[in-house]
Every structure is written in structure tokens, then in C-alpha cells.
Write a structure and sequence with these properties.
single chain; 399 residues; Rossmann fold; 2 domains; eight-stranded mixed sheet; five-stranded parallel sheet; binds cytidine-5'-triphosphate
Length: 399
């Protein structure tokens, strides 16, 4: 029997994407039953959801027909997962507070099934301290949060709050349903983002890394059940759900956090660690005083990946590095694999024009003892899922 999702559609313009979402789930063999809130029904009709899901749409907690047919307790009984998409600020607040004011919130309170939410709202509502606290509460309860994405919104504003695309939601749901548990009992560490190296209290040396690839890997490992720590340099990304995130600034802080978190099973170093730091950062702001600046003296940072590779009996069982290259990509990456003592290396071309740094897509080559595997161009989320899948395959037979 295929998988079943109970889709709760709450109020928001993104509800118009639900027919597409249901169709894409069906394409992947996942059946959907819908619960529509009053707000959701302002944007999408029960008829269109019923037509696409091939099932009755449930709306009213107190409707006798609905209760006779399928009580609110039973609604999620044969579902493998509850997906709230779009999840409005209102339903997230009700979930965090444990309210049961309508059929959707009652079903959510009455379930023991895994829950995923795909928030969609105006950027200010998403940024509001109340929503932030509600999201933290839900994450702490193990609820998976998909997105939201940054972009132009229906209200004309720009920022985080746009619901993730149906294709991305389906991928997350599918990965969860297929793979949940493949890495359970495993521990993982991922480094991500740039590091900032202080020159003085207000200035720093950094690089263009966005952290998107590293964050996606931490998410993917966590979705497969790994107990995941993400050590992240400064980024604009939200913390991935279910992942323990340690925020750091400098390479030295990142190294210290990695040593503390050293996992037994998996470490993926995706961070673009600054190679150098200011040799003697000033403790007070440097003044220009109308003169040419002093040359900035730099000194080498410790190599985190190489130190994990040399950690002796504390070395993680599977150690994976990244190689950001602009020329001779494979040759340079192979040299790094050997020099840093890692097991696999993910080589990517970051030369100008590829759009890799900061972009959403990546073209990588996975180098393992079995050879070089050229992956087609795909989203960073897809690279992360594929890499996590390969990790799970490899660890399957290991104690
Ligand atoms: N890395 C690290 N600590 C450093 C430098 C790099 O852990 N101080 C890791 C990166 O996270 C990545 C790998 O080493 O997994 C390769 O990083 P990259 O920037 O491609 O190469 P570098 O070692 O910095 O060498 P170069 O800048 O000369 O290409």
C-alpha cells in the first residue's frame, strides 16, 4: 500500500498551490486526504481539492456527517504524516498553544503521527517575535518546518515568508516517508557558511559563502534520523528543523565547536572557512586619520577538516570534505582528499559565472575510493538529499 498524507490547508494565498501539491504527491504514489480550514476555503474550493485527492474534504468539526463518516480522532489514523501547507501564522500559533478551535487544530492535537508544516505569510508576520517563538516551540516538539523561502510575495513585499514550492515540499515529504530512520542512532556534524575574521571590533575579512549547501546537508541528515549538529558561520538562513545549531563567527570558534561536537559516525565539512585571519586584530576601532592604511598582516587558520581527519580514534567514521575550485576541479579536489585525510570529497566549481556561491543550484562531483561520480546540475537541496542517501547506503552495513 502506498503512503498517505493528511493535508491541512489553512488560510493564505499559497493555498492556491495545493491542487498542484496534491497532484505531485499523487505522481509519487502518495495519497492525500484534505482538511480545509475556514481561512483556507477563502482561497481554494473544497471541490477542487476533492477532485484532485479523490476523497471527501473535511471542514467542519461539528458537522454530523463528517463526524459519522470519520471522527476528528480517526482523521489521521491511516495517514503516515500530517502536512500543514500552507501553515498560516494563526495555525502555527494555535498549534504552539495547543488550541483545538476547529477541525484542523483538533486533528493536530489528537494525533500521534509525524507533523510537517510549510509556513506561508507576510515577511513581517514571519519575523514577528511571536511567530519566531511559536516556530521554536514547534521545532522543539519535533515538528518539521519546510521553508519558508525568500522572495517576492503576493503582497508585493520581499523577504522570507513565501511557501516552499510544491516540488520541494513533495521531495521533503517523500524523503521523510522513504528514508525516515535510515540514519537513526547515527551522529553527524556539519559545518556550513563562511567565517568572519575580525580586523577590529567593526570590520572583518569574510567570503561569499551563503551556507545553503551545508544547511541543506544538515537538514537531509536529520530527516534521515541522524542526531545532527550544525556548526554554522554567519548566514541569513533559518536554523534547519530538528538540527542542533551552534552559531559561530570565526574559524577558531568553528574549530572549538567542532571539537566539542565531534561525532562518532559522520562529519561533513561544507563551510568555507577563511584560510587566514588578521594576525593581530585591533581591540578598538582603527582610525583612518586621513592616511594610507597599514598593510593588513594575516596569519593562517587551523584546518578543521584536516584536524578531524587526524583525530586518531576520535576520527568520525565517515569524513567528507568539500573542495571549492575554479580550475582543474577534479585534480585539485583529489589532492585535497589525500592531504586532509578524508574519505570522500565533494568537488564543486565555484568560478565566476557558475552562480554556485550564493545560488540555489550546484554541480558537483563526488570523489570516493570507488572513483569520480559526476552528478548533473541540481538544486542544493537535491544535492544534499542525494549525498545523505549515499551516506545512509554506506553506513548500512557498518556497526
Ligand atoms: N576547510 C576546513 N578548515 C579550513 C579550510 C578548509 O575545514 N581552515 C575545509 C572546508 O570546509 C572544505 C575543505 O577543507 O571541506 C576544502 O576547503 P577549500 O576552501 O576548498 O580549500 P582549502 O583547504 O582552503 O585550500 P585552497 O583555499 O588553497 O583551495
Amino acid at each position: 500500500m502506498g503512503n498517505r498524507v493528511l493535508l491541512i490547508v489553512s488560510g493564505g494565498i499559497a493555498a492556491v498551490k495545493c491542487p498542484d501539491l496534491i497532484r505531485r504527491l499523487a505522481d509519487r504514489g502518495i495519497a492525500t486526504r484534505c482538511v480545509l480550514t475556514r481561512g483556507g476555503a477563502e482561497f481554494v474550493t473544497p471541490l477542487s481539492l476533492a477532485a484532485l485527492s479523490g476523497d471527501k474534504v473535511y471542514e467542519d468539526l461539528f458537522s454530523l456527517t463528517d463526524e459519522n463518516d470519520m471522527g476528528h480522532i480517526e482523521l489521521s489514523r491511516d495517514a503516515d504524516l500530517i502536512l500543514v501547507a500552507p501553515a498560516s501564522a494563526d495555525i502555527l500559533a494555535k498549534m504552539a498553544g495547543g488550541l483545538a478551535t476547529d477541525l484542523a487544530t483538533t486533528a493536530l492535537l489528537a494525533t500521534d503521527k509525524p507533523v510537517m508544516v510549510a509556513p506561508a505569510m507576510n515577511v513581517r508576520m514571519w519575523d514577528h517575535a511571536a511567530t519566531r517563538a511559536n516556530i521554536d516551540t514547534l521545532k522543539a516538539r519535533g515538528i518539521n518546518v519546510i521553508g519558508p523561502e525568500e522572495g517576492e510575495m503576493a503582497c508585493g513585499e520581499f523577504g522570507f515568508g513565501r511557501m516552499s514550492e510544491p516540488a520541494d515540499i513533495v521531495r521533503t515529504v517523500e524523503t521523510f516517508l522513504n528514508g525516515s530512520g535510515r540514519l537513526s542512532g547515527r551522529s553527524a556534524l556539519v559545518t556550513s557558511g563562511p567565517t568572519f575574521e575580525a580586523i577590529d571590533p567593526v570590520r572583518y575579512v569574510a567570503n561569499r559563502s551563503s551556507g545553503k549547501q551545508g544547511h541543506a546537508i544538515a537538514s537531509a541528515l536529520s530527516r534521515l534520523g541522524a542526531d545532527t549538529v550544525l556548526v554554522s558561520g554567519p548566514t541569513h538562513l533559518p536554523d534547519p528543523p530538528g538540527v542542533h545549531v551552534v552559531h559561530v563567527e570565526s574559524a577558531a570558534d568553528m574549530m572549538a565547536a567542532c571539537e566539542t561536537a565531534l561525532p562518532r559516525d559522520i562529519a561533513v565539512c561544507a563551510a568555507a572557512v577563511s584560510d587566514w585571519r588578521a594576525a593581530s586584530p585591533a581591540t578598538i576601532k582603527l582610525k583612518k586619520n586621513g592616511q594610507d592604511p597599514e598593510p593588513l598582516a594575516l596569519t593562517l587558520n587551523a584546518d578543521i577538516l584536516a584536524s578531524l581527519g587526524n583525530a586518531g580514534n576520535r576520527r568520525p567514521g565517515l569524513l567528507i570534505g568539500f573542495a571549492a575550485e575554479t580550475d582543474n576541479v577534479i585534480a585539485h579536489a583529489e589532492a585535497k582528499l589525500a592531504a586532509k585525510g578524508c574519505d570522500w570529497i565533494v568537488a564543486n566549481d565555484v568560478s565566476a559565472g557558475t552562480g554556485t556561491f550564493g545560488g540555489d543550484d550546484n554541480t558537483v562531483h563526488l570523489i570516493t575510493p570507488d572513483g569520480v561520480d559526476d552528478w548533473p546540475a541540481m538544486s542544493k537541496v537535491a544535492v544534499a538529499d542525494k549525498l545523505a542517501g549515499r551516506i545512509a547506503d554506506t553506513l548500512e552495513d557498518r556497526p
